């Protein structure tokens, strides 16, 4: 049988109905522990001589189905599920570094990832630097003897700058450095960093993998089993695990990932086009815009432009916040990838932990907003933005 296409893997990979009494939907194994027929069997299981489930912090059948599906979708050897996106980030970095090591990061990263890196530096002497990553020379110049990891987001949250994954990988391999890509904004449907040479890809599965705003979870997919083997003891001992019910919800969400993202990408293009033509909008940042400076790289490594973009309002922080206060259908919330259209103010929300001076160097200004486009009719999204802009402009004039 030929290899299944991506859309088919979303629904079938990692699950055989014949192994679960013919159940069409993967069962929810809502149990904390598992029994052994004999003491000797239990001894063999704990010794690793049997591939059995022992305790749900160590493994669970429902979670395992999700992990196998995600590994197939990202084309990696092993996937590991975590209780949150930050648990996935933390376990990944912990597995790759030791005291005194150095991490090189893309210039923009999620606020909580920044906070975690600051904690590592303050408590354990693990330093980090930020890099534009526009050229190989620039990356090479910032690599130190103790650099162990290059950690990138692409597109970057929230500026939507796109990093050339293959270029970063080329430099990293010359220096024997592990490349980690946060692929949350794209999901494996739009971008597959492992096929472009990176070593580890991770997701806040809370976002597009779930797609319904009812799960907090993280996923890591490793290109090689050896990398996952280093991460498994960290997950076991820190306990940052995914619940079986959350895994079951993610399996359900994955089934519609392709159709959801197709709609969200199309909606995003329409909304971006409207905002670009509005006089109150200074600039729109969207990888799928052919006029964007990121378009060439994005078109090389992304299937489509995605459902998230950022834009700046022609005004102050107060004007920007007042604009989103006038929105009616669109919700003010910090997540993304949901069926609902969401908007947030990064400078005071997702990236509030980043010092103002560094935030501005990252391109996160007080008049920037990030929008995640949902599944509503694009005409209704545009209408809501339009009425809020009209009200904001009226208040400014007054």
Automatic annotation (TrEMBL):
Pfam families membership: Cys_Met_Meta_PP
Keyword hit for Lyase: yes
Gene3D superfamilies: Aspartate Aminotransferase, domain 1 (3.90.1150.10), Type I PLP-dependent aspartate aminotransferase-like (Major domain) (3.40.640.10)
Top-level taxon of origin: Bacteria
Keyword Lyase: yes
Record keywords, A-Z: Lyase, Pyridoxal phosphate
Cofactor: pyridoxal 5'-phosphate
The enzyme's E.C. designation: 4.4.1.11
Catalytic activity: L-methionine + H2O = methanethiol + 2-oxobutanoate + NH4(+)
First-tier enzyme category under EC: lyase
Similarity comment text for this entry: Belongs to the trans-sulfuration enzymes family. L-methionine gamma-lyase subfamily.
Protein name as catalogued: L-methionine gamma-lyase
Phylogenetic classification of the source organism: Bacteria, Bacillati, Bacillota, Bacilli, Bacillales
